[in-house]
Amino acid sequence: MGANRAIFLGAIPIVLVLGLAAFALVKFASGEREEQGWVLHTYQVMDSLRTVLNDAADAETGQRGYLLTGKQSYLQPYRNARARLNADLDQFQTLTSDNQDQQVRAGALRKLLNDRFQVLDAGLVAGGAIRLASPQLISLLDQGKVMMDETRTMIGVGLEEEKRLLTIRVDTRRAVERNEILAAILLTVIAVLVLLTAAGLLVRNNMRLALSEAIRARQARILQATLDNIRDGIVVFDEADKVAAFNQIFFRLMDFPTTLAAMGTALGAFRELDETLSRDTLDAVPGGGAGKQEYARLKRGENALDVYKADIGDEGFLIAATDVTARMRAEASVRQSQKMEAVGQLTGGVAHDFNNLLQIISANLDLAVSDARTDPKTAERLQAAIAAVERGSRLTAQLLAFARRQALESRSIHAGRLVQEMTDLLRRTLGETIEVECMVAGGLWNTLIDVNQLQNAILNLAINARDAMPEGGKLTIEVANAFLDDDYATAHNEVQPGQYVMIAVSDSGTGMPPDVVARAFDPFFTTKPEGKGTGLGLSQVYGFVKQSNGHVKIYSENNVGTTIKIYLPRSRRPQDAPEPVLSMPAEGGRESILVVEDDDGVRAAVSDLLTELGYSVASAADALQALDFLAKNPRIDLLFTDVVMPGPIGSRELARRAKDMSPDIKVLFTSGYTQNAIVHNGQLDDGVILLSKPYRRDDLARKLRSMLKPPATPVAEPAPPQPTDTRVTSKRKILVVEDEALIRMTTVDMIEEIGLTYAEAGDGMEALKILAADPAIDILLTDLGLPGMRGTELVVEARKLRPGLPVIIASGYSTETTPGEKGLEGVIYLGKPFNLTQLRTAVQQAQGAG
């Protein structure tokens, strides 16, 4: 087989040279014929010009003979020449169609000859009646002579032009002949050299053929054994522990240098890089045979490998390495998905019950605010409680977002425009130490998304990035088109390949280690100090993106920074118009409303709210009671029903039957936990109007008025109570340091209630400035978890400014300090939440200590 291959390889250049020679000969022969054709063409043009000149001369000779003799026989040459002339001129013009100068000359010559024949005709007329030459005839003869001279001159110029072309074309044809001869000689020399080289190769190949066949037979046996046992990367060692066969994948997977990828490399060279490949270790990892293979699990960077050994008889053994990274990632992804699903179901259920509790609290607080209009201090405290309810509502919203149980109202938007509009808000939110840069790629696709949830997600990521850059830094938001291919989808089990809009939020902060990245999306997991985060920000982003059929990925490196990429599916729908801002007043009405709610507390509170707004209210505990009431009272304007309902009839079926009974009835759904009744694939069903729990009185009023016609007699909204200054001054003054504004406001209210004055600060640095500037402060009340400077650090620094300053530390966690710790002697601890009595007791203890 080796000899045949050598002959074949030697014949290839010979065939190529012969083919090249044949091509060159054909090419040159074709060129020579072409040039010879041009030479013949030139002769034809010259003959054509001479024919035209002869025609003109014959016509003139016949005319003069007739004028001199008066014989008609002289007119025959004149008539023949005149008849031929146009055809001869046409032939000349056709022959010179490739020569623009000759074409112009042909036209001029045609005109000149036509004029000449007119003169000849005039001469025949003038000389036919008069035998003697008249002055008129002489003039015509002279004129004809001049024209004839011009004709001869013009034809002479044309002939000279053709002679010049003839010379050029003859030279060209001779050059082609010379090149043809030189090419033939050169190709002959090359052919001889190729033949000699091929002959040398064949001779050398024959000399090595015997040795090569013996080596090849041995390698064939080893190769066959290798192919029988191959899995992925593989290297084969012979009986002397030297490499006999290999593939490059083995060295890439094992991260070995390519210098080892050579025949004859000893096993010891591999052992120096990885002790796993020693004979003792390999013998402890049996493989191959009888369908059973055991392996050693190795890590190479981010890749996981299964390495196993297989004997191949007396010829040696092989080592194979299989990359199982994708399988392990898929298994981890399944485990993560199962964990997230389990936690999601738990958080969804908790959020549902919690929202019902918040709804009862919120509704009763709204009612209490109306009752407390004459007591500004009570109204102010109720507003603080309402704000706390709203914080609880946001917390449950985050839980529902992670559990993928929120109802998304998606619209087709241009994500780049939304991010650009958020840039100013982000700059104000993040502060002057954070540089914000926004980059939006051109030709950006639209995406179908809930705008409010996307804004919340970007804001969450931006705030996390700020917290990762305590000394300041740069936040970059990039929006671009992206395509996630099959390979990426294989590595990320939950991803569908296709076109996406990518939003990448990058910071130059501290970064995260791999173990933190792995848990970053877990609910309630946070690296922030205790009391400085719920651990739901990233989990909310994760749940929202997943519910939107998207993908989110974290890239982070310690002391370098973090990038979180959100991939949202591309939408081919045009952009939807922006939703109008709901700015209508919070007014009531006189319509009749049926409230359907299984929770007694919620049902009672909502009924009271609606009654206060002026509506005629009826209530039912389930769908059966509601349908029974509608059958007896069909003139109900609006059905206000919870989504999650007990009993055989669900909320959607209740709405359908209510519509059948009263086609004009409006239906408003409410829920703190949406199920498949009105939400499918994470999106609200068409035509469904939802008010999520917990909701405020004003939210409910506006939603109802947007669905019902304006009331005939609007119910005036009571003006908010104006707080009056009821502080009780005292000689004692407390500095309250708390970063949560609502808690700080409530605390200073309590301090006023016990008859003390106060100053307040949001962090440690601000507190130290106030303490240095105000000598009247004689008690410090501080939280432990402050931004920038912990409460214990603040106490130490404050006592440097004011030795012996009484200190109260308020915290919802353990004291986190050691009694008697330097700088913290005599500190009074106050656990959160605390009431007025507990605060008064702590102040009295601090006063006694001071």
How does this model look, in words?
The structure is a single chain. With 850 residues, the chain is of the alpha/beta class. The protein is built from 22 helices and 24 strands. The strands form five sheets. Strands 6, 7, 8, 9, 10, 11 and 12 form a seven-stranded mixed beta sheet that branches. Strands 2-1-5-4-3 form a five-stranded antiparallel beta sheet. Helix 19 (741-753) links the parallel strand 20 (733-737) and strand 21 (757-761). Helix 10 packs parallel to helix 11 (451-467). The protein is elongated. Residues 286-293, 711-730 and 814-819 have low confidence and may be disordered.
Largest sheet: 7 strands, mixed
Uncertain spans: 286-293, 711-730, 814-819
Termini separation? 106 Å
What is the C-alpha radius of gyration, as a whole number of Å? 51 Å
What structural class should be given to the helix and strand makeup?
alpha/beta
Shape: elongated
What is the count of β-strands? 24
Mean pLDDT: 75
Portion of residues within helices: 40-55%
What amount of the residues lies in strands? 15-25%
Given the structure, what is the number of helices?
Answer: 22
